[in-house]
Amino acid sequence: MTFKKGLSLFLVASAFAFTQCKNEAYQTQSTAETTTSTASATAEKEYKYETAPNDPLNARIYTLDNGLKVYLSDYEEAPRIQTFIAVRAGSKNDPADATGLAHYLEHMVFKGTSELGTQNWEKEKVELDKIEALYEKYRATKDEAARKRIYTQIDSVSGVAATYAVANEYDKILGAIGAKGTNAYTWVDQTVYTNDIPSNQLERWIELEADRFGDMVPRIFHTELEAVYEEKNRTLDSDGRKVAEVINTALFPTHQYGTQTTIGTIEHLKNPSITEIKKYYNKYYIPNNMAIAMSGDIDFDQTIRLIDKYWGSMEKQPEPAFTAAKEQPIQKPIVKEVLGPDAENVSIAFRTPGINERDALVIQMISNLLYNGQAGLIDLNLNQQQKVLQSYAYDTPMKDYGTFRMTGMPRQGQTLDQVRDLLLQQLDMIKKGQFDESLIQAVVNNDKINTMKAYEENSNRADAFVTSFIYEMPWNKFVSRPAEFASITKQDVMDVANKYFQNNYVLVYKKTGKDPNATKVEKPTITPVAVNREVQSDYYKAFMAKEVQPLQPVFIDYKKDITESKLKQNIPLLYTKNKENGLLQLYYILDMGTNNDPKLGMAVNYLKYLGTDKYTAEQLQKEFYQLGTSFDVFSSGDQVYVSLTGLDENFEKGLNLFESVLANPKADQKALSDMVAGMLKAREDAKKNKGVILQQAMMNYAKYGPKNPFNTVLSEKELKAVKPQELVNIIKSIPTYEHRVLYYGPRETDNLVAALNTGHNVPATLKPVPAEKVYKEIDFTQPTVYFTDYNMVQAEMMFVSKSVPYTKDIIPVVRLYNEYMGGIVFQDLRESKALAYSTYSYYGTAAKKDRANYLVSYIGAQADKLSEAMAGMQALLTDMPLADANFQNAQAALRNSISTERITKSGILFDYERAKKLGLNYDIRQDVYQSANSMTFDQMKEFQQKYVKGQPQAILVIGAKDKLNFKELEKYGKVKQLDLKTLFGY
């Protein structure tokens, strides 16, 4: 499970605020008086529901007799339903002496009930009661020797209790029925449980969730607690998380937003209380404090009757009260410092009002005026002019308060104070009204477009319901926010900015260095518990025996689903029609990239800083933003994508502007010099990012050796020698090479072809793309351990094995193997042995024909668990456990998933692009679906023996050198330390 950061939670919610609607009262209606065949009683019941005028989701909001809210939207992009079960209970509701409780309870809700996940509840309950009592004793004991003795008892009794449990049964069920995205997140105001289910599994899912939320059993407690410890350690290794915590603590010295964190303190994590968890569950997990939000292929009447049938018996309870602490004004800047290995930056944060206040909406406008990725003041004045390496701003609305934050990364030789001053200058311009008033309307228009895009996905539609429920915002108010947003004036912006943004901010300097206060959650002694893979509870057997009407898969027929045409100069056009809204996606694709010309990526990056013969760079961005369009140029090793996206009604204008950028970029020496300086600084910063080091630099080294696609870059001397006109010539040459055009939008073919033939500027003869430099993948002849030193609490490692080149014949068994092993690895390394929070293993197929497949396995754990973690992963790769129940689940999951997934919209075009790279002319999922049921474990075992077991490995390890046991590493091969210059090439 994960807990969601404020920014990611509200990206969608922010976009939702801008669909144009009228602010009118709710309408109350009732469903048709029909019965459903699934109902046990024939008595008809009328269900009243609320709607909102001009609602783009056409949602119905029901309230059951017990207070449970149900939000429904029918959007049939596939025979699937996105579901969220939301609880108005987050970390702000944690007891002050038991922080992290809401988050830990979230983990426990996945452990089953008194029927699901148990072989013998009566016997298991006896042991669970003992464990609960021991934890209370452990919590009250201060003497460390006595605590260790008690924990030994806990570990012993837990082993006994686990013999009666069936680990991971809930996840097995969801996997078998074809669910996706089974997870949850906890944040300050909420805990939300997520599932994306096939529509034919609706009743089974509703019944399962009603059982799960009506009867929580905290089993397999101490190993899951250890997983939470590892999650805590991951946060301690994240400089970004540390900065956010410092900001919240300073902004909210009284409110729980700042006084306690979602994951909790180390002290509280080390002293958990099952009793307190149960109290919290009984207090907050009640129907009148919860909501079910669903969007997808649903029948309103049938769905609400099923929810009432299974959830209606939950008893209404007194609603838990929460009184928000009132914060005192901040009188002067609060300055903080955070040390860590990542690159330095500076953040400025302000306290803002809660989401339901109008001022919060104005602050959302201010956030967009400053930074929208195209034409905000920070975009144009700082990022495009390269006055900083990178900068941004965003608002995070919450229930009781919100935050507004600006962050900037310095250029080489630039101080953090200089970056701070530049950010504050942009905010000062907002306060003084020094911005074009037309930018407000442009923000409104672009967010309407973002909303249209967002509502093409059921996950975003359902998440809008969660926002409405959690923040107690009536749906009609939620839907009417766009009109309110559009009514914001320049004077409103200035007034609110001056009201909230004075010298009342928190200033955090994130500097590179060793954190003197670095801590970690210590590893307790844990005996692996039984996971009982071959056992099934009676509940599970009965659940899986229920028959449902199967759904039939729909595969792409590239010839039927893609319209192919020709543009002038015989340029291929591949087209899929957008029948839903007025948005377009246009791509020019060239089969050449930085492997063909190492300066191509540099030229593509240079383009965004250039103007044309008619417009400055700033004017260009404003023009695109005003049109509700955006352009981008992206280069990879073997391809260039030139894209135009936005409103199709402005297609011709956008295309002309877009083409003028490619045809007439104006060379700018200062822009190039600044860009080169920025590239050099960004390169140094990348060497401080552990994710880049492990997953890009070390992975490429393992696959290709010392000279590889990742570190083949222009040297500093070469970068500085590049001339502006040289890059401009490369930009101009992009449309002169052979390429193809992809279009997803509402136009008819003839109209589209005519518009492109008129607007797309190409020479009379297109040039063939130059030859690509191909990097040879090295053969792994002997096991090798590659190690990179990095100051961190955890250690992270990847096991990499090179396999055979891509062949479609093994794809079905590969898909089944990955489905099967995903559950096995999770069960063994996390649930049984408590070695990691995050771990996985998969056989990855190549993206291009004639390239190798790779087996990749990952585990992140405390450094002192390294030997156990490596041994555990290696054992699973060597001797794949046979678990018949898991195998049957994997088969069912594969078929159910494929039968209900639909590749639509622009996804059809890009699926075809992927297929062509592999030499395929049909949807490979057909082979997987047809083979899933007939494949045997022996076939999968044969695959494992041939392609997985005993294959030479490169083991990649990143961690603090003084914390790792190198004698253990040497057991797995010759240890070779890689320095950053070798990995990065500079």
Automatic annotation (TrEMBL):
Name assigned to this protein = Insulinase family protein
Q: What cofactor is needed?
A: Zn(2+)
Listed Gene3D superfamilies: Metalloenzyme, LuxS/M16 peptidase-like
Annotated Peptidase M16 C-terminal domain residues: 275-445, 767-892
Peptidase M16 N-terminal domain residues: 77-116, 606-698
Q: InterPro entries given for it? A: Metalloenz_LuxS/M16, Pept_M16_N, Pept_M16_Zn_BS, Peptidase_M16, Peptidase_M16_C
Keywords in alphabetical order, please: Hydrolase, Metal-binding, Metalloprotease, Protease, Signal, Zinc
Please list which residues make up the signal peptide: 1-19
Instruction: Please report which protein family the annotation says this sequence is part of.
Output: Belongs to the peptidase M16 family.
Which PROSITE patterns is this protein grouped with?
INSULINASE
